[in-house]
Amino acid sequence: MGDAVGVWFVGARGSVASTAVVGALAIRAGLAEPSGCVAELPEFAGAGLAPLGELVFGGHDVVDVPLVKRAELLAAAGVIPPHLPSALATELAAADADLRQGIRAGEPDQRAQLRRLTADLEEFRARHGLDTVVVVDTSSTEPPSAFDADLAALEAALDAGEAPLPPSSCYAYAAFRAGCPLVAFTPSPGPRLPALTELAAERGVPWAGSDGKTGETLLKTALGPMFAQRALRVLSWSGINLLGGGDGATLGDAANVGSKIESKARGLERILGHPVAGPLHIDNVPDLGEWKTAWDHVHFAGFLGTRMTLQFTWAGCDSALAAPLVLDLARLLGRASQVGLSGPVGELGFFFKDPAGSDEHRLSAQFDALVAWAGWL
Amino acid sequence: MGDAVGVWFVGARGSVASTAVVGALAIRAGLAEPSGCVAELPEFAGAGLAPLGELVFGGHDVVDVPLVKRAELLAAAGVIPPHLPSALATELAAADADLRQGIRAGEPDQRAQLRRLTADLEEFRARHGLDTVVVVDTSSTEPPSAFDADLAALEAALDAGEAPLPPSSCYAYAAFRAGCPLVAFTPSPGPRLPALTELAAERGVPWAGSDGKTGETLLKTALGPMFAQRALRVLSWSGINLLGGGDGATLGDAANVGSKIESKARGLERILGHPVAGPLHIDNVPDLGEWKTAWDHVHFAGFLGTRMTLQFTWAGCDSALAAPLVLDLARLLGRASQVGLSGPVGELGFFFKDPAGSDEHRLSAQFDALVAWAGWL
Amino acid sequence: MGDAVGVWFVGARGSVASTAVVGALAIRAGLAEPSGCVAELPEFAGAGLAPLGELVFGGHDVVDVPLVKRAELLAAAGVIPPHLPSALATELAAADADLRQGIRAGEPDQRAQLRRLTADLEEFRARHGLDTVVVVDTSSTEPPSAFDADLAALEAALDAGEAPLPPSSCYAYAAFRAGCPLVAFTPSPGPRLPALTELAAERGVPWAGSDGKTGETLLKTALGPMFAQRALRVLSWSGINLLGGGDGATLGDAANVGSKIESKARGLERILGHPVAGPLHIDNVPDLGEWKTAWDHVHFAGFLGTRMTLQFTWAGCDSALAAPLVLDLARLLGRASQVGLSGPVGELGFFFKDPAGSDEHRLSAQFDALVAWAGWL
Amino acid sequence: MGDAVGVWFVGARGSVASTAVVGALAIRAGLAEPSGCVAELPEFAGAGLAPLGELVFGGHDVVDVPLVKRAELLAAAGVIPPHLPSALATELAAADADLRQGIRAGEPDQRAQLRRLTADLEEFRARHGLDTVVVVDTSSTEPPSAFDADLAALEAALDAGEAPLPPSSCYAYAAFRAGCPLVAFTPSPGPRLPALTELAAERGVPWAGSDGKTGETLLKTALGPMFAQRALRVLSWSGINLLGGGDGATLGDAANVGSKIESKARGLERILGHPVAGPLHIDNVPDLGEWKTAWDHVHFAGFLGTRMTLQFTWAGCDSALAAPLVLDLARLLGRASQVGLSGPVGELGFFFKDPAGSDEHRLSAQFDALVAWAGWL
């Protein structure tokens, strides 16, 4: 059995993190089954993971609506069962006490900011007597960053009073400085800037990312191998994603969606062995609320070139799909940290659209690799 | 490089076998690419398979429409490119010369019938100087058979002038007696009756079956593992299959469809680890001709029980999906025979809805097992 | 403005009637908008209909779970907003007081039974000082009835102590005897047996039916005219309906589904002018609860016979679709009664799969006829 | 019976016009049924339309590939039956003789160009002794035009050696100058610029447009009224159109797609009575060839606000859908001209995404108006 693990959410009052916290508390209280939790599968029973019921939650956010209020909104939207917010009101209020102010726009001194974020993590770890605190970034998607200098140059820029890092990379910097493993659950730059990757290596901290695989891409990486294994030639793979909620609004902005679409498209070419034509849209449809619908159209050639099609429609609740995965990742990466791993953990690629440390995108191969790795832990 | 292999189709003038013959001849003549041919993937390059261009075709059928005429009908139906029938007229006429009369309804003496079928195979093998002739059953689906006696009882019944075997098992009997490996590409009883399984073992002949996996079940075995790996609980998996052509008419008959639906349903329960509710229909829609459309609706529960759905529509050409697989199977099973294997070859389960000799239904795991086996060959 | 109208539900504690009652009370209390209510469209403003907020509810049912409890179950199933049951608890309890015991299985004397049902209606009308009480049958679907005698023969059979009527026709008999107009919202025999039709005529009572059009058939009658108007030849129209809830269980029973499938298929042939091939399935999928999903596949030939397809998936909440229509029908048929109409009201065919008194199935034509009729009222 | 009518296609060698010509010739020769031809429905039997078999074809195009070659390409793409090109080779070669060079890029003198186009029309009419020549624009979509001057200003600009008109409006100018009615089957500016509309009125010529309704919009105008009539509130209507062929390439260009998306969106708001959210994409997917697939997702609120969805997938052959309509339009507008109508004919709105002279977008209402108008003709 692993040691107790702290989970520190960036975007702690957002839908994904709130759902994860409510869910973990509900499962601990015996009010729900751990459905959707990969790490609860029998394959992971011997991996020494921190029990789901013993996770301790904290986090950063830029808004301050109480978690119980967030839970009520999630219940009204059909993301969580309606009886949970009142049943868990006490526990949610307690979790509120461990949430801290995130990055304020216009905070002028990035060096000071980073010190504050790092201190928040260290205090949380000390306050709860935790060995391991895993930082999980579930905040809104940011546009790509052009900052590609090395760590020394980053430090020099910070010393010079500059603010070269986007917010996601600030949180990654603070995590690594505090010796905390990091899960990059969004496509934001986060730990993937060269200076941050270097910092993780220098500090011997493991991290995993990026961009949680919960919908269309999940299906692509489950279905793509079928076409490859059957020697069916995919001529085009077109897709549209309709999203409501905050995610829809963020991704409706062309600048942000760039990084997302890029990470969505990458895997299919690897799986099929050739580039694949076809549009890929992400659209904000506010009335869908917390729900998302993806439609994909695959046009392929079989024997003697005969043309055929596969279509699918995936209608899911974004936060309900993502929340169990961030709990899984916190427990798995926490364990990786405890056994001394550092750098990007490619074996966690199963969870991501754009797996750091791995070129494998086929879902079943990723699962096999994850199970083998968990056996080794 | 393997030795030349003969391919003997039961139902040789049917859509699947005709498409396979036209396709193999077209590929040999440089008129088509081998798309859809699994055995042409790089993974199988070193397996010593007979080259696609060197297969020799013969077969049984109960009708006698010339192959070139069948090819013209397939072209009109959009199954094969319109220019192939005339381009391959000579080769198709030559193949006609190797086709023999199948089982005539009302032929009274089953023992004599079996002798005739066996002799047809032996003569074909001798005529072309082949080491290996693989019999591939692509004829219409038959209802289940209740004949469960052992081989000795079967021989005694045949000696007594009885006719205990359904046609598919007659062809299997003849194949095994002639020392020919057998591919059961339909859900008919064929080699799966106890007496036939015993005969294959006694004669040291390998066989593979049953019921080619080309549509809805292919998708189920590609997608089912995704739900299991992500700990998403499938509540129901409902499906409808619309088929035209001869297959539609045969499967529209409730007696025949029984064995098909059974073999379609079996795998999902194995993959998910629990029985799954939901109707499964196979309907004859004559105007669809050679095409088939399957729609599946998967209702599943994620985190905290939240309900979500996946739907897919698969619109394919049945014969174009099946034809390359029977060529693959003939080459792979021919090689298995050459290296001395006997009995059901579970590693060929990748191709079947109801794999004999294997309990594995997950498509990627089946592919990995097939590749490993081919490497060992 | 029309006079106050009573609405007497057969199956008053079922999902459709409960949703209708909750909804009408919520709209009256200003807790909801009248979305889905056709009679609230501007086209019906001058038709003299009883205001939605002034309907008085009563009914028969064979179970006695309180309406507030039914409302809570509907809220948990996502059919109605979660806050309504407690907000309307008082009103729902009041409505409970107007519900009476329905037809008990094994009640031996059908004559006595009919007297009791009739008396229930008359007492309700008197108790609330209503001019008009519309009976709306929303109970479970029954199998077809073979009773085709005339009214005199029916009365003789009842006098002889026989029990020739199915329950739905008992309720229709009681309605007509009490001078109450009747809405047959199910495909059960109800008022469509010859003796009942005769009774309605004799008593000068209007009625409407049958089988509310809320899903697949609604779409068929909206889309079918498009194919006809564009001279596109429909080759086959295949469909599958997945239903949970009580409706799914009832219709999963082959005997009951007969009448439903018949009434679903009838309209399309009328619209297209020729019979249409294609399977039509209704399946019970219990985990869908109050929700239903229909998938239809239309295969059609265009210019020069080119084959094309239309598919649709309708995912709806059965009771939420049906409930506003029964309120509409009660108000419209109540008004028809007030202006002295009798017999089947074909102009209400807009609401039904199998319109009594009309051969028109095209949705837009039905709407135009309804609006014209309402203008005349 | 109406007089013989000439049909002059702009874009005469494009897929739509070629399919229309092949089809009309095939129907005349008894090689095909007139499926998809609205004007062949019994409702139009007494309207005095020119018989389908007596249409005479000519046209402009900028390329010069022979029609029989175009027909072979259409057959290879599955748009027309494979036997037609050779069966109709003589007739197609004859039609080639009536095709003329379209607008050459860089032709400097627009006044001269317009004279040449007009003369082509007048010579065609004279050569075949036709009373009526209907010009049908089926050429590629152009971007919107900013030219909004009146006719006098246009003439002055032309006299001044300027070239203010986009190609589609040049063809419209030539048609009106020659006294020919015009069908604007594309969303290009064509006759809709103020100066052109004025010219048609001055010359007393009828015209119809614009943008043929053959796919997603056809479905929208068939389904939209259903939501309105049932008082179901559409929250969002999202759609994606995948197109191959030349149309896909043209519309993949953002400048051209603007006018198309605008005309697609306009109708729904009219039908529903309020603006509707939701993305609308048109994408070029070259491997689809002549085929197009549209997927729409409708999210709507029913009783008490309960959320439900309708999805549809329309998989059609663009030219096969459009070709019969251009024949219908030529015959109907030809008749309108013969009876002396002028200006935009709103009653032909049934055929268009963006009907000129009408605000009605509901398909059934448009059909009723068309039938009434044809009865009056």
Secondary structure elements and pairings:
The structure is a homotetramer of 377-residue chains.
Chain A: E1 5-10, H1 15-28, E2 56-61, H2 67-76, H3 84-87, H4 89-96, E3 99-101, H5 110-127, E4 132-137, H6 151-159, H7 167-177, E5 182-184, H8 194-203, E6 206-209, H9 216-229, E7 233-243, H10 245-252, H11 254-272, E8 280-284, E9 291-301, E10 307-317, H12 318-338, E11 343-344, H13 363-376
Parallel strand pairs in A: 1-2, 1-4, 2-3, 4-5, 5-6, 6-11, 7-8
Antiparallel strand pairs in A: 7-9, 9-10
The end-to-end span of chain A amounts to 12 Å
Per CATH, which architecture of the largest domain in chain A?
3-Layer(aba) Sandwich
Quickly give the structural class of chain A: alpha/beta
Give the chain pair forming the largest contact, with residue counts. A-B, 55 and 55 residues
Uncertain runs of chain A are none
Question: How do the helices and strands follow one another from N- to C-terminus of chain A?
Answer: EHEHHHEHEHHEHEHEHHEEEHEH
Question: Per CATH, what is the topology of the largest domain in chain A?
Answer: Rossmann fold
**Number of spatially distinct domains of chain A:** 2
Radius of gyration of chain A: 20 Å
DSSP summary, beta strand count of chain A = 11
Oligomer: homotetramer
Question: Helicity range of the residues of chain A?
Answer: 40-55%
Biggest pleated sheet of chain A: 7 strands, parallel
User: What portion of residues of chain A belong to β-strands?
Assistant: 15-25%
Please identify which CATH superfamily of the largest domain in chain A we are dealing with: NAD(P)-binding Rossmann-like Domain
- Average pLDDT of chain A, rounded to a whole number, is 94
- What would you call the shape of chain A? globular
Distinct helical segment count of chain A: 13
